[in-house]
Amino acid sequence: MLLYTAFLSESDGHPLKADVLKLCGDEFFKVFHITGDDQDFRRAITAYEQAAACLPSGDPRLPGFINNIGTGYLACYGRLGRLDDLQTAITTMKNGIAVTTDEHADMLPGQFNNLGTATLRRFERTGDLDDLSEAIRNHENAVQLTPDEHPALPSRVSNLGTGYLRRFESTGNPDDLSGAIQNQQRAVQLTPDGSPDLPTWLNNLGRSFLRRFERTGDLHDISEAVHQESCAPLKLSEADLISLNTSEVTEVP
Question: The pTM is what?
Fold first, then answer.
């Protein structure tokens, strides 16, 4: 990309350099989605890192640029499975939160949501329950900081419910199962009929009711599990239903 090469030679103080490099990173990601070439994936992350390096401390664009780097590494981990990429994603996301000022506090819910997703991925890889508890804390922060009418609130609430369900499945603590059901019910209530996300939330809620039935034997719970599954559109394939059970939402500004 000629524009990318041209601006790399400019000084970091050039007024357009950071924004152009960030734009180039976006374009490299678009190319990756067409070609599937991992080199384009890496070029995108490198461009985001170079863009962030151009910004002085306190620049209002810095938290967003750092978030792009973190989500890039998280996506890279999801594609290639390298633990180093996941560790870098988590460290980078924490750095992004640390440099977010009160003037840009509206970015924090999305940042905490992304960090929660990343720490949950690390739990899945290592089995460390501290990572799972950290994931839940981050998703709790995301939900608490999200305004009631924000369109991302249902997905963030659902992610919190997923964290509680994972911890119940790991520890057997019934309080976590209750937390999963409460948040998944709220996600369903917040989502309008016809939303493409609704089958995900319904399926996750059904799974939690099924887990409670397995624990208590209460037939009401198995009835609820069947009801939630039946409310999801029938066009969902078996593979879709399996993937929905572990759905997470990662946000990029």
Answer: 0.84
